[in-house]
Amino acid sequence: MALGNHSTITQFLLLGLSADPHIQSVLFVLFLDIYLLTIMGNLTILLVIRADSHLHVPMYFFLSHLSFLDLCLSSVTVPKMLKDLLSEIKAISVRDCLAQGFSIFITAGTEGFLLSVMAYDRYAAICHPLLYEQMVRKQLCLQLVWGSWSLGFLNALINILPASNLDFCENHTISHYSCEIPSLFPLSCSDVSTNLLVLLCSTLLHGLGTLLPIISSYARIVSTILSISSTSGRSKAFSTCSSHLTAVSFFYGSGFLRYLMPTSASSLELIFSVQYSVVTPMVNPLIYSLKNKQVKAAMRRTLGKYLPCSSWKSKAKG
């Protein structure tokens, strides 16, 4: 990567979450556990959806891609964080820093678009059940997923290209545990006004372009659910979209706030970053497995294939 002629910085130092060695040890154990749960949870969702034919429908096709994205998003930041928690010098090269920032952008951005797609799927299933197969065809599902990845890539590209032309002259300490693009702007001795404008516009366009369809879809879903006469019917209809609503709340409640708020190296920034890039990928599999009867049933069927029959029955009774 070519940096400007005035750049003298070749690497950054990450301050991380804490400078206290004792706290770092505790954080290492905590985030290692979170990462292992994230890997196991999302891999389980991917395995169950692939292995159980009952889940070979659009809703779970999208869920499998969400789990893959959560694996990617967590793996972009957490392994480096764990390594730094055990290191005295938490260094990262400028090239690797920009690569990490790009990876965070593309995975988180794609996840936002995919959550919007999943809201459309729930709208079609609840509001137009008789037309569902026509509205969510297999070919359309593939197009929506690839479209989400393409838009996520474009969103990342238009932010990383201006950032790659910045010069970093003196200050090379990032008050963060990862290289999120907004954290680089205060370190640059170049004019970052264009970068800030691009970041603000792209974040607003991305946020509105994904959140408004979600709000619109759920406004119609709620209207349809309220028109159902039976209590059991309303409960069943709501249960099919409650998991997605919870996932949307976790993601949007922290991710977009992180990129819209001014960079100030505050603890609130770190909390928002940990929320959307570390906690949310761990929580999503739990949300979709604990709150979804079909996924729980599929897990029992899938695990039953690999556990001895007597052992599985005894576990089921317990």
TrEMBL record:
InterPro entries: GPCR_Rhodpsn, GPCR_Rhodpsn_7TM, Olfact_rcpt. It is a multi-pass membrane protein. SUPFAM superfamilies: Family A G protein-coupled receptor-like (SSF81321). Its main location: membrane. Keywords: Cell membrane, G-protein coupled receptor, Membrane, Olfaction, Receptor, Sensory transduction, Transducer, Transmembrane, Transmembrane helix. Residues 41-288 form the G-protein coupled receptors family 1 profile domain. It is found in: Cell membrane; Membrane. The chain crosses the membrane at residues 23-48, 60-78, 98-120, 140-158, 196-216, 237-258, 270-290. The keyword Cell membrane applies. It comes from the Eukaryota. The keyword Membrane applies. CDD domains: 7tmA_OR8S1-like (cd15229). It holds the Pfam family 7tm_4. Putative odorant or sperm cell receptor. Belongs to the G-protein coupled receptor 1 family. This is Olfactory receptor. The lineage of its organism: Eukaryota, Metazoa, Chordata, Craniata, Vertebrata. The gene is LOC103546808.
